[in-house]
Amino acid sequence: MAILPGNSQLADAAGHPLRSLLEINRLKQSEKDMLYSRLLPQRLRELLGLTGDSLRNPAREQLVTIIAPEGLPLLRIEARMKPDDGDVVFFLELSDTQFNQMELSFCIICDPSAPRFDVDVDEHGTINWFASHGRNIPEELRAMRAGLFPNQTRRGLQMFADFFPLLERFTDALGIAMIVAEPLSYDNAIRYEKYGFDYLRGKRLMREIDREFRPGGRYFKKLDGSSPFRMPGLERTVRGRSWAIQDGILDEPWDEVQIYRMIGVDAGINTFPDRVPEVR
Q1: CB of 93 closer than 8 Å to CB of 105
Q2: Domains of the chain
Q3: Phi, psi (degrees; rounded to nearest 5) at 188
Q4: pTM for this predicted structure
Q5: What secondary structure, in 3-state letters, does 189-207 show?
Q6: What pLDDT digit, counting tens, does each position of 55-80 carry?
Q7: Dist CA 214 CA 228 (whole Å)
Q8: Which residues have a Cβ under 8 Å from the Cβ of 70 and sit 6 or more positions away?
Q9: What integer is the mean pLDDT of 219-223?
Q10: Considering only CA atoms, which of 43, 6, 37 is closest in space to residue 161?
Q11: Residue-level pLDDT at 100
């Protein structure tokens, strides 16, 4: 049952209630497209030039692909400026969990007009899976100096604030009370805090990171100029800390941080309360 004001239970064309991605994925593709297109921010539609409620531009090119296999509890949405573009503008991956939660696996929103930084491949051009299988240091340096966060190939569109309320209402319309996620980096975790998430696992680590980046802390002492990612002063911003963590400054790997957001509830968590605002 939906709990957000003005929201109602999601149903198929015949009026049958839908309570999971798995149930939606049993429908025909046209109906799936209609339901899942609710997750596309209006600004994204305008950027792509989508006509009406369709996934196509005026030239009838399909710019949004919705992958929702029957029999599987997952959804992937890919949006491109042109059908044959290698890079996406918007990428979303969701899945049902066995505990009746909505898992936000990935959400990537890029500015297609911005310069690209090849941080997603190693120095030999092989995909590095978010730097877990090798790094591209020259490209990371270029990205950092351009004001990007770790793992960003392009500047973002500042559109997550448009997207997240759509996800929350969509999840609520399925009668699901919790959204869960695993932030891939420190800055992701801080960003999710802004949207009301709390920690299932990792709050101790986040508070320890904040404590040890303060003057006198062990991570603060490691900002010794030994690499461009460990320059004094990086402790003051989320971006600076993120790049230092990307460079392996922590005593333990960034791993198994899990967060959750109860529908309609802002947890009010802030593990970096005195950070210096980012200058983009």
Answers
A1: yes
A2: 21-211+254-262 (3.40.630.30)
A3: -60, -45
A4: 0.93
A5: HHHHHHCCCEEEECHHHHH
A6: 999 999 999 999 999 999 999 999 99
A7: 19
A8: 25, 26
A9: 98
A10: 43
A11: 95
